Amino acid sequence: MNAGSPSFAVGLTCGLVVPFIWGGWIVASRFGVLNALTPFDVTAIRVGVAAIIVLPLLLTRGLAGLPLWKGAVLSFGVGVPFALTSFGGMALAPVIHAGVLTNGVMPIFAVVIGYYWLRELPARSQIGGLLAIVVGGAMIGGDSFSFDAPPGQWFGDLLLIGAAGCFALYMTALRRWNVTIMQAVIAVPVISSAIYIPVWLLFLPSGLLQFDNFPPWQEVALQTVYQGIVASFIVVILVTRATRSISATTMAVLLAGSPVLAVLFGIVLLEEVPSVLAWAGLAVTTSGMVLAVGRRAKP
Is the pTM of this model over 0.70? Predict the structure, then answer.
């Protein structure tokens, strides 16, 4: 794509917007689970609102030709398991942990899954980046074992790492099966909602279902817009448009800025100021994420 073409400029603009939205999503999610809503509520909002939006597409196109079992795998990767581990982790660990551990560890899982599923080997430059991510992640994780760390923060870190694994599975499945955006947009929320919403209504702790003490409508509206619309649709559209114009590699480099932006938003909006060790871990991990982007070699 010509760097001076209008299409490239549009794609680059879309790519530059995504890290801000992703960083804002981390802060919005952290805010939601720290107040009146539980991680189970935010998960229900995420998949439920998205399912309602795509219902007309489901009724007219079904799963758009995607086999049900493949849709189930995609739903596992970026549906309820991803949401529960993400929001559960954010309820226990600060913004910088969510940004670094989920976004940073994702390339490691992607390499492992890609090797066993796609038979791809990482390039040498990627190996150096992955090692830097491990070091940076260890620095962030070490922050959870300090004397003043909140109880359970280490478990939140584990959940966030699990979310990285789920999303890496989703991204690899997209490549392996050449899934279209339409197929993913329909399958993930519909399958997730069909399984999760009844369980949430009947068995899971909820602040949203306490009608005598209903959460502030502003919090519910924030999560409805950000989880059900922005995170489920707008980000997908922007990433797809950007990737077609500026390449997947460039898009991945731009996404490496998401943890930094999330931390800055967290400082301003949530007053979560990272420790010196966490700042260092953020710097090391971000550098590793940039290095980890590259071509993989076939064995």
Answer: yes
